[in-house]
Each structure stands twice: as C-alpha cells, then as structure tokens.
Write the structure tokens for this entry.
Amino acid sequence: MYYYVYDHFVTQKKYQPLLAKIENRLTDLEIKGKIGRLSLLNNPNELIVDEIKKGAKTIVAVGDDTTVSKVINVLAYYSDVCLGIIPIGQKLKIAQTLGLNNPIEACNALASRIIKKIDMGKIKNFYFLSQIEVQPGDLILDCDDSYRVTVDKKNKVTIYNFNYWSDNHLADPTDGLLEIMVEKIKTGFLNKISTKNNSVTFLKNKKIIIQHKNSSLEVKIDGQQTMKTPLLVEVANDKLKIIMGKNRIFA
C-alpha cells in the first residue's frame, strides 16, 4: 500500500499540470494510493504514523529535499516501511543522487521497486540522509573515541552519509560509516578557479563529536535544519529502506 505525502508547496498553481501527469502515470502503473497533504500547521509525524498503523508499507515523499527530510524523521522509527520519492521543486539533490532525475522517472522507479537499505546520520533526535556543513572556525573533531582532529577557520568541514559531487570520490551510504571532508577554503581568483583537490582530506568514522575551541558554531543539516555545536554526529542504528533509480551514483 502506497501513501503519497504532498508537501505544502506542490499545491501551487504552477505545479498542477505536473501533478496531473504524475497521478496519471501512477494510475497507469497501478500504484496509485492515498494522498496526504502537509501544511505549515499539521504534524508530519501524526499524518504518516496514522497511515502506517492502517497498513501503509511505502511512504512516498512528493516534494524536494526538505520534504524528504521531514518524512525520514518519521520513518527512522519504522524500519519495515519503505521510502519512495517523487521530486518536485528546486532543491532535488537527494533524489538525483538516488537516480530519480524527474517525476515520471521516479514513478517508474516506484513500480520497479529497486530497494536498498542505506545508512542514516543522526544528530540528537534528528536524522539525515546526505550531509552536514559546519560553519568555518577553530574546530575540534573527536572521532570514534580514538583520535582527535583540529581544524582552523581556513578549512571547511563537511560530514557526508552520501554526497552528490561529480568527481570520482563518493561516500558510500551502505558502509555503516560517515565521511568527513576537510577542505581548504579557496581565496583569491586563481585558487577559486583551480580544480585541484590537493588540499582535501577524507576520514571515515561511526561517530564524531564536533566542538569549537571557544564558542558555538552553526551546523546545517541536509541543507535546511540548523543546530549549534557542540554536537555528536553518528550513524543511526537502523538503516532506511528506500526505492531508487537505475542511474543512482553509488553501487
């Protein structure tokens, strides 16, 4: 049983022709299901959990990366329920990484049901799929209770579960590890246009404690949720079942 969670912005008039195409395709594929609509007032947890209790086994996030984030923070507690995504909007990097490059392709993927179990990152009680970005500063990273890394404000720290850059280095969201990338911040015209990655360091860990030497710094999670250091970032105990496309950027 499919349950489609429409984010509030997809009801805008400009998306109505696209939604009609999506719903027609789902009907053709015989996977049409009940629709729930998020608003700025209702609670995604109550909306989704109620349908899971009624038997929904696949929850489909219809929207952008923020929509996906809302849904996984419910499904993180239901390891037997599968996540699907139909991408609509501007920020669609998570869907694209999973090989879901447009809404119709995503509908076809739902019918094909290529399902993988992938890791989730966790900070406090908030779960994330892709990455966190740390505000530059004098940082201390305590990694797996075994070693410490110090980073100055001339470097940028990003922690990935999976990443969506286009070079040959890809974080694996099935290995039970998070990947830290420490990258020197480029300054000056020549440095900014350079494509060399000589100033990038990668580390893999199950958990990382992030703290600033003297104060708190902002951490942006999956491009939308913000928290402040000190923070414990770790791999969640349970994996997420997710439907993906054939052209995903990891194995």
